[in-house]
């Protein structure tokens, strides 16, 4: 079984369902199981395009968890397209490459998959600064064993999305988004959740931007 739901295993990747970048731990590695970068973690950082567009539907936040960088790359493109801010969801105890090795029955991610009680991951920062000011929140993640990578769970569960539009997105080598959106929406218990979008490890030029434009936010 792969960490990512229905995702195909990628060399050296642990997670890869909806996020072949380590976002899926099991048979995929979209956002792959890899070292989580700490850059930009714990704070909302203004995207830095030359001339950032102004969001039509109010302030936009792009929050994401990325294990191997694939989800991060998509998040940055969404932020650039919307003129939004970025917030990296960062585990207080980051995953190492060994932690993300889904082929190892004793690795951290495998033990967490097998024991649901281990999936409540403590984050360095749960709520972005001035979170109440954002009207639209993108939530990005890789897919692990057909589930959204669990570091995202606490972010979704412990924040108030009332009067916010929430748009999920994920990365994977082959798996679909599956029921990850519905599961996260139920966990959040608030907000207007849209269907969202799944991307491969390296979306073609314009693919992310065209999707964002179709949202009319």
From TrEMBL:
UniProt domain Flavodoxin-like: residue ranges: 59-214
One Pfam match: Flavodoxin_4
InterPro entries: Flavodoxin/NO_synth, Flavoprotein-like_sf
UniProt-recorded Gene Ontology molecular function terms: FMN binding
Top-level lineage group: Bacteria
PANTHER family: EXPORTED PROTEIN-RELATED, FLAVODOXIN-LIKE DOMAIN-CONTAINING PROTEIN
Name of this chain's protein: Flavodoxin
